[in-house]
Known about the structure:
eight-stranded mixed sheet, single chain, alpha/beta
Amino acid sequence: MALKKTPVKGTMDMLPGDMRLREHVIGMIKESYSRYGFMEIETPVMEHIENLTSKQGGDNEKLIFKIMKRGADLMRALEKEDGELADSGLRYDLTLPLARYYSNNKDVLPSPFKALQIGNVWRADKPQKGRFRQFTQCDIDILGDSTNLAEIELIGATSDMLRTIFSEAGISEFTVHLNDRRFLIAAAKNAGFAEEAIEGILITLDKYDKIGLSGIREELLSNGESEETVDKYLELYTDLENVTIESFTKNISAEYLGEKEINELKEILACAGSMAGDGVKIKFDPTLVRGMGYYTGPIFEVTLDDYNFSVAGGGRYDKMIGRFTGQDTPATGFSIGFERIITILKDTLPEGYKLKGDNVAILIGKKVPLDKKVEIINEAKEQRLTGKTVLIQPMQKNMGHQIEMLEKEGYTEFKKIFE
Length: 419
């Protein structure tokens, strides 16, 4: 059987320029978030299958790469008609592993705990442009803080970090969309939808960008909802251009949405807007849903005007850790679309990300004697001690092409030693 030189479908080989860009961005992320007190952690790439299939991961639970049991455990599972053949799987995101991590280590962690995670995740998805089976995620989370200071910090820190990264791509403006799952549920109840229908209503609302209000109305009616209920519901969404928290919530009964929740979101909008700085627009967006069912409060998403996808998103999920410990723990997080950010930067850096600084390439000819080689190696050693990047290579026949390739990598100074 012939060996295949291409990577498995849905995965990528990383060229040196790709890795330099990725490491550069990771460095900026770590430096930016560390200034806000976030601490880096790491969780295993494998998780217990019970955790991964606990109905907290939405559609991602359909995309798990499962890992089969081994040895006698596998044989026993095969003998059972309904035996589960897998006992673990590759993580599909970083939030569920964080919840397990915190539950296991909370006694030795500070409270509130500000966590930063960067790592690969895997989803058995259908590969296509911009959609991979293995990709990098970057998350920040604040655990143990029930106040809206957590959301304000997350939005402020992420806005600061994204502004730093996007400045290299010439992008100076982006929008943070803000909503609250409690607003979404209250709006649906206020219109008269049954409790068991609300999740489906939100799934339809989440398609607003694709099908508009008319498409939402048509889909809700086709799902058997009454015309009166649907029209009352969509009245809340008729003036999205000028919508504010006040205008959206004034027609929702206090039976379904209290002043406390409304004021909390107003505070987040005001304070995060002050922290975010120039070029960052923070707006209330009542159509923002976020697909994950584990969100329990404020939710947020970041978009760029010239791109038809979000580059970050998150929200509050106060119930997840309680599934591990039996006691709910306040938690809120922001996930950065690392691969999408890399795609944007690569669009603006078509030749790849070059080495920075003064980089020296020493090309040694075939006739160079041993004592001269020792001299060159010692010289390179001294230059490296000063912080320079020094590459030593044998001189190739087509030296012009060799130098051209090295220039693309970022080498600016060349020393050619012929003999």
